[in-house]
Specification:
Layout (H helix, E strand, L loop, with lengths): L2 E5 L2 E3 L5 E8 L7 E7 L6 E7 L5 E3 L7 E6 L4 E6 L8 E8 L9 E4 L3 E5 L2
Parallel strand pairs: 2-11
Antiparallel strand pairs: 1-3, 3-8, 4-5, 4-9, 5-6, 7-8, 9-10, 9-11
Length: 122
């Protein structure tokens, strides 16, 4: 059974850091694009970052450049999102997803996890 499970969310103060994990089971992440998306209450889901499992190419949303880093561990079949210098506007439910194209368009992603909640507040 194909499954994506996110973890690592929580409450953090502004300026703090979190590391999100996305573990895949039932399939391998080879030859796919893996993306992180987030959705805050009342807002549309937006792409944060994505990585190509083929060559490690990365794409970041402009709002997170220099603060977030996406990485993957093929041996563990997992993708990570290291988030630093967090801001209140980074809060939301963070989802990982698997697709074919290295783009930050959620319509291009076929498989989704259930999400992990990130709260940035003092």
């Amino acid at each position: 059974q194909l499954q994506l499970v996110e973890s690592g969310g929580g409450l953090v103060q502004p300026g703090g850091s979190l590391r999100l994990s996305c573990a895949a089971s039932g399939f391998t992440l080879d030859a796919h694009a893996i993306g992180w998306f987030r959705q805050a209450p009342g807002k549309e889901r937006e792409g944060v970052s994505c990585i190509s499992s083929s060559d490690g190419s990365r794409v970041y949303a402009e709002s997170v450049i220099g603060r977030f880093t996406i990485s993957m561990d093929n041996a563990k079949n997992a993708v990570y999102l290291q988030m630093a210098s967090l801001k209140p506007e980074d809060a939301g439910n963070y989802y990982c997803a698997v697709g074919e194209l290295l783009v930050l368009d959620d319509m291009e992603y076929e498989y989704w996890g259930q999400g992990t909640q990130v709260t940035v507040s003092s």
